[in-house]
Structures are given as C-alpha cells and as structure tokens.
Amino acid sequence: MKKLYIATINILLCTFILLIQLSLVYKNRLDPFEREGVLKNIEYLTSDELEGRLCGNEGNYLAQEFIEDSFIKSNIKKLNSSYLQDFNVKAPILVEGEPYLKVYDKNNKLVSSYKYGVDFKEAFINFRVNHITFDNTNEFKVLPTIMKGTSSSNNSVVFLSSPVDSFNFRSSFIEDTPCDLYVVVAPNLIEELETYLNKGYKIDCFIPYEVKEKVVNNVTGIIKGKNPFLPPLVLTAHFDHMGKGLSGEIYRGALDNASGASFLLELSSFLASLPQPSRDIIIVSLNAEEFGLLGSKNFAKENKDLLKNATVINFDMIGSDKDIPLTFMAGEDTCFHSDLLDRLCEICNEKNITNIIENKDSSDHASFIKEGFDAITINDGDVTRIHTPEDKIEYISPTAIDRSFSVVWSEIFDSAYSSSGLFLLDSKVLILLILSALLCLVLKLRS
Q1: pLDDT single digits (tens) 418-441
Q2: Least buried of 91, 150, 184, 438, by fewest C-beta within 10 Å?
C-alpha cells in the first residue's frame, strides 16, 4: 500500500513539474496584444515615407514589405510558396505637368484660368484620359451640380460641383467607370462654364495622372492548427489608402485603414505566440481595397478550395475617438444568415458593449460573402475624416482598440483555442501548480 502511495505521489509530482515547465515555456514565448504595438504600427504606416500607401505606388510597396517583415518576425508561416500573392491592377500614376482648367474664346485667346485647389481639383475616380478639350460643337449635358462634356475623340469628362471645404475629400479609384475623367469644381463654376460654352468658347482641362497596369500584392500567412480538416479561421485587413495630393498633402489613412492593418499585425503576433490552435488561422493583409475591393476579390476567388467553409473576420477602421457603437458590417444581401454575426452580437451583449449592424458591401467582407463564406467586418463607423488629410494618428483612440480586441479575442478563443492549454498561461494556475508540486514533495519526503 505504501509503495502505491509513493508511486502516486511521484506521478503527481512529475506531472506538476512538467506542467510548470510547459507553463513557463508558454509564458516565455507569449507576445501579448498591446495597444501600444498597434499605435506604433499605425505611426509607421501613416508616415511621410509611405506617402499614403496608394496601390501601385512606392509607398504601397514599402507598406507591403513592412507587413511581410512583421509576419516573418512573428513566426507566421507562408500560406503558399511565398508571403506575397500577386495580381494586376490599373493604378493612377503621377506624371509631369501642372494641373489646369482653362477657357479659350473662338480665337483661341485665353479667357479664364482657374486656380487648382480653390476652383477645381481631381475627384480621383478615374484618369483613363488626363487631358480633354470640348466646346458646344461637342456633346455636353448640364444639371444643377454636374456637367458632362465629350471631346471630338469621344472621351468624356464630368465636372462635379462641391463646396470648397470638401475639396480635401478624395474618392476611391474605380477603373471601370462610365466616364474617363472626373473633376471637382467650386460652387457656381458649373453655371459659369455653361455660359462660356453657350458663347462657343472651349474648355481645356488637364490633370497630371495616367492609368498604368501594375503588379501588386496581398500579404498572406498562416498559423498552422492541430487539425487541418477543420475549416480555417481567416483574419483580414486592407493596408492601401489614397496616396499624396498634387499640392503635397498626404492622405495618411490612420483610421482607414492603417488602424485595421496594424490591429491585424499585433493580433497575429499575439496568436502566433500562443500554443497551437485547434484549426488553421489564415492571416491576409489585403491590397487595392480602395480600387474596388480588388485584393479580397482576387484572394477569395483564387483560394476558394483552400478556404472551404471558412469564417472570415475583417478589420476596417479600428480605433475612432468618437463615442460610437462598434459596427458589425454584414453583406447587402440580408437573406444570407451569418452565424458569426450572431456570435459577435452575443459577445457584445455579455460584455455590455453597444453595437450596431450595417448591411453594406463597402469593405472586404463582401468579396468573401460573394464566394459563399461567412464574413463580417468589424468597424468603428466614423467617416468624419476618412479620405481626407485629416485622418491622422492623433485621432486614434486606444480604448477603441481595446474594445475591438476584447470582442474578437472572445470569438477567436472559442473558435480556435478553447482546448489548446491556454489555462497554463494564467499566473494563478502557475502558482497553484507550484504549490501542488511543493505539497507532493513534502509528502514524498515525509513518506
């Protein structure tokens, strides 16, 4: 009987010592999620060096390199043979020349030359052509706030009347728009231009951008799970934004979406430092969201088999300093039921976090929904500064970052870590294990 007692004590002692060692290993590896890490990443992604991260431009490639390096440092593995998944886009590229909007009379004498940034500015919607001239011998249409003109070569320009204080807003670039060039003009300028056209005068406009085909990349990685047959959890955020204006102003995109991209990097680093999850966790930093969700469309379509039955959580605008509810953005098709949305709402109820649901296709979740996946965007729905130079890091709220992490970690834990031994990271558990081992040692010595 005494031998059995001693054997039991030895087994328990060895077990407790093994669990203590495992706990210490896990704690040593742990890279905890910290709001400061998110803010540090935002600071770099919104820096002058990256010039607004416009897809197809140098700053965007620098952001891509930064994200890839972060994956490597965090020990996130390649999803395929490379961290980069390339695809082609048509992107606006700055060319030589100064923007102008001028009016010439029938004798080709300059009548009026408008001031860039005061009277007119590119809307940034498209630049299939960057120079256009037309007069009343060409087709033109005028509405109270819009003028459409067509050149003799059948190229078209749209002038959009807008308050001068909204000139700072820059639209997303959409290559397949019906017209070739879009220009924002000051109030009453539509009427003035119409008057000139009715006199037979010529309108001449040039914006120094042209559309070129570029190869750009999503950055992809994976944290391998124990069971490859379970559907993966996919975490995404886009890192591109709107670039640098012709007057030198930078569209830094702190909230939209350096915040979501930085949140994803900090979250991924944290997850990669944990014990192995039960299922694969796929991490994707998406590009060309501002060009019409092109990066997510490409990734979802090309990896449809790999992502079979996946759940997708997208982060877009995390950290508004406004006192607003947390937004869960589902697809426009309200017939599609999302189990993920139900769970996120339940988590918010449990944590007493105010949330709202929006049915919109205005972020990357839409690309995954259209391929049949359950996808939701987590979003702080503050649009007061986005797509303007005022979207800066000083307006990012650390408490809003913490709020999003609180919600998403609950979902990720239940989905991928509930049986992974995370209890060993709890300091109270470690103390209990040490005390239990000491007790076994005392009992062994007494025997």
Answers
A1: 765 666 555 676 566 566 656 666
A2: 438
